[in-house]
């Protein structure tokens, strides 16, 4: 049985298209800034969130959709277990490494499980977080498929550098076949294009089962997917529900299935039948259910491992550097002095000298710096310069204050 869960932060459009069925059944409530079941902003506390629940309804799990969205502060004090859904971990790594450790469990794709485990995030489980929206499975009037090869997806070179050479290779076939490459579209526009395509060319960024793979199957297009994908073979078999290509045979396979359209249509229809069990709410619900049935032992208590690991690291750091806190204060003061000098707000924009030895100023500091014997950071003595400035701002742990 799928547990009752909160899902978000999300938009009204995403919640209606992906979670409409489970929300109507009472198994899910979506939260976000506006237009969804619960209106939650960044500063909403848990008491205010719980006051919006329907009478007698309480979540078993809170699914945090960490897809380019910040988690409202009130959920960190929620009594229900938190499940972090880490989608584009390769692009959101610096945020996820802070957000995921406090969660009770983490769901991400197969390659992400290994990467997060190397970062000491051990309460992570594999799951397919991209599935077709149920509305894509609605029968539509069969139209002419006038696009031979279609690609819809991201083309940004900083993100999809490995994908671009493959698309260049596909684009060279435009002299013989009708090749269409589109980017920056989604929803109804993407669905309309896929409904006109004979072959949908796809290449994942992390060897994961991405959203386009399920959408192409739901639209009835024959999907071409890279052979090294690690997740899709569990759902779709090669040459029966889709075609997995390699560098040495992609041209030959495209030629074959564009020439023999009946074989390609049969494979696409088999995939469309199979994708009915791979919708977004179905895949997410099964993943949450797998965590829920494990009982108390299946949830991760961050206070047991994460906090203890941080305390251990801090303890080891202080053992290696007993004066680490004092050194950090010195570095902050030294940085403040340098910033003031750059702005010309400290004295007469005094120059700095660094070297090895006790702190000294004036010509003697200049000479010792040239000889490499002065390790302090001091301003030169100038007319009107008072010693209290050195004592207040210029701080060096290895020297004595200049007076």
Structure, explained:
The protein is α/β, with parallel strands linked by helices. The N and C termini lie far apart (75 Å). The chain folds into three domains: 152 residues; 141 residues, Rossmann fold, CATH 3.40.50; 71 residues, no CATH class. It contains 14 helices and 14 strands.
Work out the helix count.
14
What's the N-to-C terminus distance? 75 Å
Helix-residue proportion:
25-40%
| Adjacency order of strands in the biggest sheet | 3-2-1-4-5-6-7
- Major sheet description: 7 strands, parallel
Please tell me the total number of domains: 3
Strand content: 5-15%
What is the averaged pLDDT score?
81
Give the SSE string. Answer: EHEEHEEHEHEEHEHEHEEHHHHHEHEH
Unreliable segments of 5+ consecutive residues: 300-307, 345-361, 367-403
Number of strands: 14
Taken from the alpha-carbon principal axes, the silhouette is globular
Question: In brief, what are we looking at here?
Answer:
38% of the residues lie in helices and 13% in strands.
What keywords describe this structure?
403 residues; alpha/beta; Rossmann fold; 3 domains; seven-stranded parallel sheet; five-stranded parallel sheet; 14 strands; disordered C terminus
Secondary-structure blueprint of this entry?
Blueprint lengths: L4 E4 L3 H13 L3 E5 L5 E2 L6 H5 L10 E5 L16 E4 L7 H7 L5 E4 L1 H9 L5 E3 L20 E6 L11 H8 L7 E4 L4 H9 L1 E5 L9 H8 L3 E5 L16 E3 L4 H10 L1 H14 L5 H13 L9 H19 L3 H20 L8 E2 L8 H10 L6 E2 L7 H7 L10
Parallel strand pairs: 1-2, 1-4, 2-3, 4-5, 5-6, 6-7, 8-9, 8-10, 10-11, 11-12
Antiparallel strand pairs: 13-14
């Amino acid at each position: 049985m799928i547990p009752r869960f909160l899902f978000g932060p999300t938009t009204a459009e995403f919640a209606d298209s992906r979670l409409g069925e489970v929300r109507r059944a009472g198994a899910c409530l979506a939260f976000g800034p506006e237009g969804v079941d619960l209106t939650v902003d960044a500063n909403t506390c848990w008491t205010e969130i719980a006051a919006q629940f329907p009478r007698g309804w309480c979540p078993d799990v809170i699914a945090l959709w960490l897809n380019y969205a910040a988690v409202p502060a009130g959920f960190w004090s929620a009594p229900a277990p938190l499940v972090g859904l880490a989608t584009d971990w390769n692009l959101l790594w610096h945020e996820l490494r802070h957000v995921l450790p406090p969660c009770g469990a983490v769901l991400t794709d197969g390659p992400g499980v290994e990467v997060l485990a190397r970062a000491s995030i051990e309460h992570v489980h594999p799951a397919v977080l991209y599935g077709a929206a149920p509305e894509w499975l609605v029968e539509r009037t069969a139209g002419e498929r006038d696009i031979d090869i279609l690609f819809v997806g991201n083309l940004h070179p900083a993100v999809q550098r490995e994908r671009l050479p493959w698309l260049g290779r596909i684009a060279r076939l435009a002299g013989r076949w009708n090749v269409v490459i589109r980017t920056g579209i989604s929803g109804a526009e993407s669905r309309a294009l896929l409904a006109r395509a004979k072959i949908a060319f796809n290449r994942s960024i992390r060897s994961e089962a991405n959203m386009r793979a399920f959408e192409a199957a739901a639209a009835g297009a024959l999907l071409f997917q890279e052979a090294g994908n690690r997740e899709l073979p569990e759902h779709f078999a090669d040459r029966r529900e889709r075609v997995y290509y390699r560098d040495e045979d992609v041209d030959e396979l495209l030629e074959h299935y564009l020439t023999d359209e009946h074989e390609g249509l049969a494979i696409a229809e088999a995939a469309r039948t199979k994708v009915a069990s791979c919708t977004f709410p179905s895949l997410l619900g099964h993943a949450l259910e797998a965590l829920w049935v494990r009982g108390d032992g299946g949830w991760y208590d961050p206070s047991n491992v994460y906090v203890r690991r941080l305390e251990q690291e801090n303890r080891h750091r202080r053992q290696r550097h007993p004066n680490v806190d004092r050194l950090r204060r010195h570095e902050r003061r030294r940085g403040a002095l340098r910033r003031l000098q750059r702005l010309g707000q400290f004295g007469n924009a005094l120059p700095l000298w660094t070297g090895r030895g006790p702190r000294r100023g004036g010509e003697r500091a200049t000479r010792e710096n040239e000889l490499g014997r002065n390790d302090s950071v001091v301003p030169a003595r100038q007319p009107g310069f008072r010693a209290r400035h050195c004592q207040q701002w210029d701080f060096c742990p290895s020297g004595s204050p200049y007076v």
